[in-house]
Write a structure and sequence with these properties.
The structure is a single chain. The chain is built from seven helices and no strands. By secondary structure, it is mainly α. It has three domains: 1-68, no CATH class; 70-99, no CATH class; 104-134. The protein starts with a helix and ends with a helix.
Length: 134
């Protein structure tokens, strides 16, 4: 077998199927934009330029066309469900943690602490009433 025949047979063996090449839709990066990134404006401009170049700057074509599916969203959902099943309280703390920045008040934690104190107070009050009746 000559080198040319070997290279041709390897090419036929490794190349992608034509159906796979035609079905890929370009993702421009508009899924889950991170608003607190230092280069947020530059990221938005890059997404806009990518979409504009693809659709010849007629963004109405993008709006009316088929949108790509965010495949990472499915993995993200199952990963979060697994985290919650593994440790529910830890997952809730992790999910609420993004609200606990220096710029926002810690309302949620205060609300949970006050709720716990109220439940403990009512429980003690209820048990003391039961003991008085006995």
């Amino acid at each position: 077998m000559s080198a040319q025949n070997k290279m041709t047979s390897d090419y036929l063996w490794v190349r992608h199927a034509p159906i796979e090449e035609g079905s890929k839709v370009k993702n421009h990066g508009f899924h889950y934009l991170y608003n607190r990134a230092p280069n947020n404006i530059e990221r938005l401009e890059m997404v806009y330029r990518s979409m504009g170049k693809t659709y010849d700057w007629e963004l109405e074509k993008f709006r009316l066309g088929k949108k790509p599916v965010d495949k990472g969203n499915k993995k993200r959902l199952f990963r979060n469900i697994a985290r919650f099943a593994k440790h529910p309280l830890g997952y809730v703390g992790w999910a609420i943690g993004r609200w606990q920045t220096q710029s926002t008040p810690r309302i949620m934690m205060c609300f949970l602490a006050l709720t716990w104190v109220f439940i403990a107070y009512e429980w003690r009050n209820h048990t003391s009433i039961i003991k008085k009746h006995d």
